[in-house]
Amino acid sequence: MIQIKRTLVPAIPDDILVQILEKLPAKPLLRFKSVSKSWYSIIEDQEFVDGFRLRSHNRGTNILVRKIRFGKRTVEGQNTRVYDFSVIDSEGQSVPVAVPNILKNTFFHLDQPVEGLVLCNNLIWNPTTGKIIDLPPRNPNPYAKEISEKMGNMRECYHSGAWSKYFLGFDVSSKKYKVLSICLTWFERKPIRANNDDIFYKEFDINENQVHVHAEVLTLGTNSWKFLSIDYSVQQDLSKGFTVKTSCSINGVIYSIITPHSKLPVMSSSESECILAFDLSHEKFQLLLLPRRVYVDFAGEIGGRFAIIDVYGERIWILEEAFEGGRWTAVDLFWAKSWVRMKLSESRLIEVYPIGSCQNGEILFRVSEIVSSSGQDLGSTIFGYNMESKDVRMVTKLDDFVDDRDSIVSGLVETIHPLN
């Protein structure tokens, strides 16, 4: 009988194993978690996860693209919309991304990714791992009882409601992902029609409509929201109501371009937008003015700082010292003049949309051929613009129909951060 000699492979020392695993991209790492409990423990270790995130930045950032296609018709005869996602690397190579069905069938505003994670309404998605989680329920509205009591037995004469918005950020001091929630709660008189159809408001004990603002923050990995205090002046300004144009997280601060429903006292007559900044470490809000006479085509990270790009003004505005009053520095753009709304014919023109920046410092632009009458995108090309050399290179072509400008965002890195 043949004897088979079994030899045990000596275990790899942990320090050497860590050095080997550190050189691997995300996909093999995710597979290797099932090799053994020891490997799983190393790859899940917070220090290893943080190190992987930092190394991902060194490997370069990617572009996340969402494209629309039409699915089956509904009973009402409407075409259903299906969203497909892909990732484009710095060399222009495109790879499809598998996403949960809820993201394929749900529209959400696509803001810049935050250290590899993407906020999708009330969901957090990790494109690297394919994992997705629901945000936990927030605390009960602190103003609901007060409003109910004030309306009292005149409830039928008022209506109330609430509007809320989530913002995703990364706290660089604690190395934690955090979600900010801002909620506006209001009640107001219902208009009453007289016999002559004139609308008027009957006077009651409550003299004015009321709007209340409150904010909460959630640290990802926990299951509880914490109420935040808001400076009185900021609270008064936000209580006028506002809409959010875009949002991003840079160096521990969430920046949002907002449009107040009523002009703030510090805004000039020509200004309609401003910046709401939130420091994730100190949990402090700040309202900042934009540069005068600037149109915001893009607001996000450029060279590690918050910046605004004004395409037709041909300038980049870079923000410094956001929580010390804010200071803007202007940088001129020198690109191909043929990019900017060049007319190809009576029916077609060229439009330029900034979409962000690369790790190498290039600013990325989507240049699209547009049908003048309908606004339909006939095909887009992504270019990289070097701010120092003023050189322009083509990154890739997007021949398929793209929904709108917020369907392409830059700054995506790989992360193996667990969402639980």
From TrEMBL:
InterPro entries per UniProt: F-box-assoc_dom_typ3 (IPR013187), F-box-assoc_interact_dom (IPR017451), F-box-like_dom_sf (IPR036047), F-box_dom (IPR001810)
Domain F-box: 6-52
One Pfam family cited in the UniProt record for this chain: FBA_3
SMART domains: FBOX (SM00256)
SUPFAM superfamilies the UniProt entry points to: F-box domain
NCBIfam families, per the entry: F_box_assoc_1
Name by which UniProt lists this protein: F-box protein At1g32420
